[in-house]
Every structure is written in structure tokens, then in C-alpha cells.
Fold:
Amino acid sequence: MDQPQIKISTAANVALIKYWGKTSSEMNMPAVPSLSIGMEDLRTETIIRFSNTDDILHGSFNPKQKDRILGYLGETKKRYHVTRKLSIDTRNNFPSSTGLASSASGFAALAIGLNSFLDLGLSDEDISRLARRGSGSSARSVFGGYVEMLAGKDSFARPLMSAKSWPLDIIVMITDEKEKKVSSSEAMEISRRSSPFYSAWVDSHAEDFDGARQAILKKDFWELAKFSERNCLKMHATIMTSGPAIMYWNSATLAIIRHVNKIRESGTNVFFTIDAGPQVKLICDPGDTEKIVKEFEPINGIARKIITRVGGTPKIETRK
Amino acid sequence: MDQPQIKISTAANVALIKYWGKTSSEMNMPAVPSLSIGMEDLRTETIIRFSNTDDILHGSFNPKQKDRILGYLGETKKRYHVTRKLSIDTRNNFPSSTGLASSASGFAALAIGLNSFLDLGLSDEDISRLARRGSGSSARSVFGGYVEMLAGKDSFARPLMSAKSWPLDIIVMITDEKEKKVSSSEAMEISRRSSPFYSAWVDSHAEDFDGARQAILKKDFWELAKFSERNCLKMHATIMTSGPAIMYWNSATLAIIRHVNKIRESGTNVFFTIDAGPQVKLICDPGDTEKIVKEFEPINGIARKIITRVGGTPKIETRK
Structure:
């Protein structure tokens, strides 16, 4: 007889309104609400099986993450009184630890998979909370489309609007495939402790969040662009004023930002956002994607482009 | 008989602790204290003569500045009850309106020149105040070496330490010779009105100023580097979080910042600062200048380098 197993596919997401800063590190309690879109084709595929030996882990994750993932597995099992040993096989179809939210899709896959495989019977809200304990942004990857995440105690994410209500494309411009030197978690903590702008970041966040949220519900592209870019620049400004300064951007990151401003002047609907890394995501109307990709051909330093769309609903692919 | 005339040479300066934000636009009252070094070889040369016609202006300044300079001249004459007509000829030996402080050296030349030519009998403090009315940072170009400028009502600059007490070199890396789109004065006002980080910028400034000031007096290169870079990044973070966002950096600006961090890891004494433009100034020990210039040869996008040193004492070159 085949061993029981489950195979889950979850998508990375990109925050249009950023999660940056925690009120509790241990619990991954976000200091600010956030708002993201699932990236349909940037996916983690995770297979969970029972195992005869201690919990084992295979896959394409960053080796430094091994203890973090196994620790999470251990804690989750303990919390739900699971005594059986597990084997986890997890793979990303995009570069890990480069600021493309591989931990978001990774921990969402684990939370969804463990709930289903072990019949934990959790609500969506509780699955999102469970994912959050692995990585704050993974609370959002439990859902597809437009997703919002609340701040504060034991926070969780919830769907705001479906992907098909407002189809937009995402052009992921990878400017550096190397692993970033400072992880998001470390950088958040350094910012919180040392940036003189951190309080102003937190205090001025609600306006961006509310503005972007309304813009999504109204499908107002330029309003969303305005709040999203502003929030992105505020996050990076907070990061670069930390002590020591952390600079996630490289020269291609900046060349892309400047080029977005330039082609926008000629009337193309496009805006940028950048998570904690040097990669830039462009958001645009699907009808303009091809034209925009062409317009970026002369820009140096773009190692790779991934073209995808808002989506990313998790899938339980096989269960036996 | 020759017409009486005076020829003044003044140097641009670069702020290590930035002046950004005004409490009064009309009077150029700085919201924060600043600290600068004179750049010995980036100079404005200005000749003042009496004239038979209305005040006239020749030179290499940016044409948009003409009204500003003539307005300044008119106000100064009115304030000191000067009725004779003047001819002003002013030339910079470096690119104007690109973030290299041409208005600093320009208005300092006018203030020093007018005081001397018209026998106004002003103290150094009052000459500095007079220069400030033309451009805030020009209050500092009235002196050479290490100069500090106080904040607040009717503020002025004063020498902190002579250039020869601590000889340092300045490598000016020009990454864009085009005139900047948003002037410093406009950008300051936009920041003050709209950046959610502006208050934190002002509130956290004294620590940088005091730290850099002490570092200069102790000739502690790394302390000065730390406070100076932090303050520079804070200023640009405030600028880029304005609404609309203002981005003075280009991709070469960022490539230079990253390269400074890289070569510093191998032990070279060098730090960067960037005024309101895309140009980067590197500060280093004179013994390392040649080596550093070589290390930057592979970096793309540096249109021109000017190598100079801390100095910039104004000179009255001829008077007849």
C-alpha cells in the first residue's frame, strides 16, 4: 500500500503595502497592517509524508533555513500533539532568499499541508496564523488574489478581493540572484532598534494601507500606484537609515525605478514595488505587459524577468 | 583711469551634516545646523564693477538663476542704501545646478564682494548672514576649511577648524552633468510639507551634528564617516519619501555607494556624501586618493572626476 502523502502548491506574494517591523519577534506579530498580491507562477511545492525516522527535510530551500523549518515543524507538532514522524520535501521554482518571498510561500505550504495532512481542522484564519509563526508574510500566502493582513496581537491575513475581479500582471525583474546578505527578519529588527525614522514609518502607515485598500476595491490603478510606491520608498528609506545602514538596492534596482518614472510619463500604466532585496516587481495592465517588457530591454543589470499575474490560490495537488 | 573693480574667488562646499529644511523660506532660515568642508578647486570667480546702466549680470550661471541673482543684488543694495548701478560678472569652473553647490559659492562671492567693494563694513558673521539670504549653504562658503552653521533665527556660519589642521582629499564623482529637475530649494519645501519622515529628520539631526563635530575636532575619520554617511542617507530618505517622491540618485550614484562599502571592507579610509543631486563626493586621506580613484575605474556611469582637497578660503584676487 502507498504511504499516505499530500502535495501542496502555494505562491509567493508581493506586498504593495509592506509588512516591516514586529511588536514581538518570537511570535512574528506585525507592527503594521499589510496588503499583498499573490504571484501566480512563483510557487513552492511541498510534499508531506509520514516517516519512520525523526522529522526529515529535503528540498531546494536555503541550507541556513533548515533549522528554522525543522524548528517550526517541531513546534507545530507539539502544539497540536502530533507524535508521528514526518518527512517534508519542499521546492521553489524561483530563487530563494533573494527578496522574492520564498519563506512566505514555504511556510504557507507547511501550514496548509500540515492542517490537511494531520486533520487539524483549523479555520482559514487559524491556518493563516499558523503560517505567520513561520514567517510573517506567509500568513498572506494562505490565500490568493488581493490579500490584507491586520496588525497587532495574533494577527492573520484574509482575502480582500479575488484575482479575477481585477486582473493585473506582475513583471518580476531579478537584478541579483545571489542570496541577500541581511535577511528580512534581521533587517526588520535592526530598523526597529536603530532607524530614527522607524516610529514615523509605523505612525504614517495607516494612511497608505487605507488608501491602497480603497484603491483596490475601486480598481483605481493610479491611486494604488501612488500609495504602493510611496509605502515601498518609505520602507526602504527606513531600512537605509538603520545603523548600520542596510542597502538592498543595487544600481539596476535604481535604473528600473527611474525607467518606470520615464515610461509612465508617456502614459503607460505601470508602477514598481521592491521587497527586502534588490529585485523589482512591476505591476501593470495585462494588455501593456509585452510593451513594457520591451521598453526595459535597454536597461542594464536585469539578470532575468519572470512574467506572471495576480493569483496564487494555494492548491492541494494530490492527496492519497 | 581704470574703473574701480573687485575680483573675488570663493569655493563651493559639501555638507557632511546636511542643511535640509527651512523654518522660513523667505529668509532662508535653516531648520537644522550643518557642517561642511570647502572644496578648494571648485570655485566661482566674480567681478564687481560700477556700471552706467541698470545692474547687469554676465556669466556662466544657469539662466533660470538670473532673476534670483539680480533680485538678491537689488535687495542687498536697498538694505545698505546703495544707489550706484553695478555690473556683475560671475563664472563657475564646475557644472552649475547639478548638485555641486554652485549657488553656495556664487552667493558667497557676491556677499564678500559687495561688502568689500561697497565698503559696507560688515563683520564675518554678518557677511555669512548676508550670503545666507541668497542661498542657505552659501553662508558656509564665506569661510574655508571645516565650517559649521547654526540653525534658527538669523543664523550664520563660522569656522570650526582650519583645512590644514586635518588635510583630507575630496573626489567629486560627477554622474550626470545635466541640470537637476527639482532645485534644492523646491525639494526642501516639498520634503518639509509632505515627507512623513521630515519631523524625525529634524528631531534626530542634533545627534549627527554633535557627533560629526566632535569627530572633526578629534580628527577621528571613522566617527566622521559614520555620522556623515548616516546623515546623508537620512536626508535622501527624507527626499525620496516626499509626495511626489523626488529621487536625486541615479544608478551610478548607487553603484558608487556600494563600491565605497566594498573597498572599505578591505581597510581603505573612505566615505561618501551626496548633496541634493546625483553626484557623489568621496572623502579620504590624501595618501589614498590615487589608489581609490583607480579602484573606481571599473564603475560605470562616472562622467567625470574632480580631485580636490578640503580648503576653499575665499580670496579677493584683485582690487583696484
Notes: The mean pLDDT of chain B is 93. The CA atoms of residues 137 and 162 of chain B lie 18 Å apart. The radius of gyration of chain B is 19 Å. Chain B touches chain A at residues 196-197, 199-201, 203-204, 229-230, 233-234, 236-238, 240-241, 243, 245, 247, 249-255, 257-258, 261, 300-301 (CB under 8 Å).
